[in-house]
Amino acid sequence: MRVDVISIFPEYLAPLDLSLIGKARRSGLLDLHVHDLRTFTHDRHRTVDDTPYGGGAGMVMKPEPWGEALDHVADQEDSRPILIVPGPGGARLDQSLARQLAAADWLVFACGRYEGIDERVYDYAQSTYDVRVISLGDYVLNGGEVAALAIIEAVARLVPGVIGNAASLFEESHEDGLLEYPIYTKPEQWQGFSVPDVLLSGDHGRIAQWRHQQRLDRTAARRPDLLPPELAGAPEDLVVGV
Ligand code: ADE
C-alpha cells in the first residue's frame, strides 16, 4: 500500500518510523511519503493561510499550495488515490471503515490546520481523488496530523503481513462488534489480585464460555450502544452467553 501525507508539520509523522508500521515501511509493505505543504508556496514567507472571506475567527488554509501539492502527489502514480482529509466534521472512523481503507492501494492524507482548508480544494481534488473527510470522534484536535497517525495505524495493521500473528486481528475489540475479554499473564498472584480460576482450569470450553460472557458484560457496561438490539437494554445479569 502507498500512503502520502501532506502537512505543514512533517515532523509530526516521525512515529511512523517506529514499531510495526516502521517495520512494514522497511520491508516495503508500506510505501510512505511525507510532504511539506510549504514546498508548494512561492512567497518569501511560505504563506499557507489567510483571513476568512465573510469574517470570523481564525485563519483558513489557502487553496493554491494545496492545489499544487495534490497535483504533485497525484502525478506519482497512474491510479486514482483516496484522499483522506481528517476533520471533526467527517464520517466517524470505525473498524469497518478501517477495513475498507485497508483494501485500497493508495491513500493520501491532507492534514489541515487553523480553521481548515478553503472549501474549493475539496471540489478541485474530486477530479483526481476519491475524497473522504474522516473524523476520529466528536472532539476537536489542533490539526489533522494526529488523526492521520491514528488512521494510518488502524488501517496499516490490517494490511496482510503487517501484523506477524494474523490470528490476533480476529480476537480484538470491534472486529465482531463486541469489546475484548480481559487478559492476564504470569504471575498468578500479584498485589493481592488473582488470575480468575477458570483461566487456570485447562478446560477450553469453559474458558471460551467465560470469555464470551466477559465480552458481553463489558460491552453492556462500557459501550451499550454496540450491543446487538436483542441484548441492548437488558439488565446486565440477563446478558447471557450464546
Ligand atoms: N482534526 C481536528 N479535529 C479532528 C477530529 N476530531 N478528527 C479528525 N481530524 C480532526
UniProtKB/TrEMBL annotation:
Its main location: cytoplasm. GO terms for molecular function: acyltransferase activity, transferring groups other than amino-acyl groups; tRNA (guanine(37)-N1)-methyltransferase activity. The keyword Cytoplasm applies. The keyword Transferase applies. Its EC number is 2.1.1.228. It is found in: Cytoplasm. One of its GO terms (biological process) is tRNA N1-guanine methylation. It comes from the Bacteria. GO terms for cellular component: cytosol. S-adenosyl-L-methionine binds at G112, L136, G137, D138, Y139, V140, L141. It catalyses: guanosine(37) in tRNA + S-adenosyl-L-methionine = N(1)-methylguanosine(37) in tRNA + S-adenosyl-L-homocysteine + H(+). It is an enzyme of class 2 (transferase). Coiled coil: none annotated. Keywords: Cytoplasm, Methyltransferase, S-adenosyl-L-methionine, Transferase, tRNA processing. Belongs to the RNA methyltransferase TrmD family. Specifically methylates guanosine-37 in various tRNAs. Homodimer. This is tRNA (guanine-N(1)-)-methyltransferase. It comes from Rudaeicoccus suwonensis.
